[in-house]
Predict the 3D structure of the following.
Amino acid sequence: MTTVSDIPERWSKASVYPDMWADPDEDPREKDGASPEGELATLQDYLSGYRLTLRMKCDGLDPEQLARRSVPPSTMSLLGLVRHLAEVERDWRNWIVPGEPAPTLYGADDGDFEGAVADQELVEGAFADLAREQTATDAAFAEHPDLGARVGHDNNPVRELWVHRIEEYARHCGHADLLRECVDGRVGQ
């Protein structure tokens, strides 16, 4: 049972806009200059921003904090989200790459979340898995620059797959906001 003393005090590193994760001059997501040109560049920019946001939400936490299931009875944790998104990246690649799909990384039935335990080696492996899967999926998508092209077994438009990838990260970054706040009280978008 959670008691008032178990609830961390809310805080932010930001002072310019206290509802942000970091001040603009310290936020790696802040860009000087113009917005990206074109639809594909815009999609890539949004995906990159959400990927970076997830990493930022995990920064500074130890394995126990990353694996903490902050909202019982959910199995979700920040580490579980990292593992889940590695799995999802692989799955998207399976949608467009011909041949047999690559096997799951963490097993079936919620293995990405259930297996997210407080172990430094497991944490390092999860972040390495995510980086590797993102790189491989990015390479697969780079083979299909025409957003209107239809690909894969289901003949999905490339544009739809890009938007779905962004949606997945955006939704889970929302979860990460809440999970991080429950872990140590840090707030910000």
About this structure: The mean pLDDT is 91. The first strand starts at residue 150 and ends at 151. The two ends are 28 Å apart (CA to CA).
